[in-house]
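Q: Please design a sequence for this.
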């Protein structure tokens, strides 16, 4: 048996599995009575594509930017969210920086669900 087809299939499977990320859903409900508006905040995260082929830090870039904004002020979610992306180029790689900004909100909503819709189990 020739190893080239097996190695090609294995390499293809590894590359396809490495390019998978989860979609980011940003809740848009208005501020509830059990929540406090903290104020404007922003966060950012950067990912690279080396040789336009190898992703480094790309898959969860939007989520990391959103989480960075929340952690700056100890918020539980953002409202009035704006997302901006900047790109930069170098000889062997491209970089992508995602900026998330919005109004930070802290507190628990009335229906006792977290911002992603799951029941709070604390």
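A: Design:
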């Amino acid at each position: 048996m020739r190893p080239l087809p097996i190695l090609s299939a294995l390499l293809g499977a590894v590359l396809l599995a490495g390019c998978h990320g989860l979609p980011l859903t940003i809740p848009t409900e208005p501020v509830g009575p059990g929540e406090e508006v903290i104020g404007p905040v922003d966060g950012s995260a950067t990912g690279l594509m080396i040789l336009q082929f190898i992703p480094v830090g790309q898959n969860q870039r939007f989520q990391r930017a959103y989480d960075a904004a929340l952690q700056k002020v100890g918020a539980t979610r953002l409202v009035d969210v704006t997302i901006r992306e900047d790109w930069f180029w170098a000889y062997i790689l491209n970089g992508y920086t995602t900026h998330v900004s919005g109004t930070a909100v802290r507190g628990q909503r009335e229906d006792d669900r977290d911002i992603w819709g799951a029941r709070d189990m604390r």
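Q: Thanks. Anything notable?
A: Residues 118-122 have pLDDT under 50 and may be disordered. The domain at 3-107 is CATH 3.30.110 (Translation Initiation Factor IF3).
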